[in-house]
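User: Can you fold this complex?
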Amino acid sequence: MPATHYRISELASEFDITPRTIRFYEEKGLLNPERDGQTRLFRPADRVRLALILRGKRCGLSLDESREIIEMYEPGQSNVEQLHSLLDKVRERRDVLTAQLADIKDMMQELDDVERRCRRSLAALEEDNHP
Amino acid sequence: MPATHYRISELASEFDITPRTIRFYEEKGLLNPERDGQTRLFRPADRVRLALILRGKRCGLSLDESREIIEMYEPGQSNVEQLHSLLDKVRERRDVLTAQLADIKDMMQELDDVERRCRRSLAALEEDNHP
DNA sequence: CAAAAAGTTTACGTTTACGTAAACGGAATA
DNA sequence: TATTCCGTTTACGTAAACGTAAACTTTTTG
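Assistant: Here's the predicted assembly.
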């Protein structure tokens, strides 16, 4: 039987963050642990949400932006209007991600350039020392 | 003869930021405009740097991180040691960008998923209205 | 059973990246 | 000439995302 819950320090060390951070995310409504008395018990769903938040951070998303995305994954009951609004949000997000992809590829190209020039300079210096 | 300098409000409106932002970047040492009396005169080099800063922001970089990257592009005189340290930085940055690429692709996949489910729900609702 | 370890709440502190307002100086325009 | 539109400096304000410390329970362990 797999562990069905986690304590705060377990999640903290697994994701290499502090308990304070996790409490802060809860305070912000991003996580909803159950309680055993005072102690928080996190379910797998919250673990997943935490992973999504941290992935968001790696991409430069704010907590609110991550929340928006996470809420997209969790439909809830939705009427036609809500579904259309959701589609709009999906499009917006995808546009941002597409721009980000382009920016990242550009940066990588430039880093390649820097590396090439760097290696050439090193080769030149080597050449000077061993004529 | 192309314009060889820009005033603060020109750059601000071109990049859709406020003059305050530009002054802040200067204060942080990210931009080095010349002066005509009190008035700042930005050269093309500073315009490029500004574009790089803003691209960095789109990718979630802090100003300090953007500064680091920009400084990589501007070699300056470098000895063997500095060149190796530069290569290290390039590698680090590339690793971050690589992880970001993976994260972004994952998010896009998930957005595709959301969109598909969304369209199916809409189709189902349509079906209900026109049996 | 006593001490250490891990949990809690409350609350103030910190850094980043600007916003906003005050108070002022030239230049262009009605 | 008066007003308006840039521009400037100085300075305090703010939101986000936690860090840190105090003061206190609860659990675990030697």
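Chain B has a mean pLDDT of 93. Residues 80-129 of chain B form the longest helix (50 residues).
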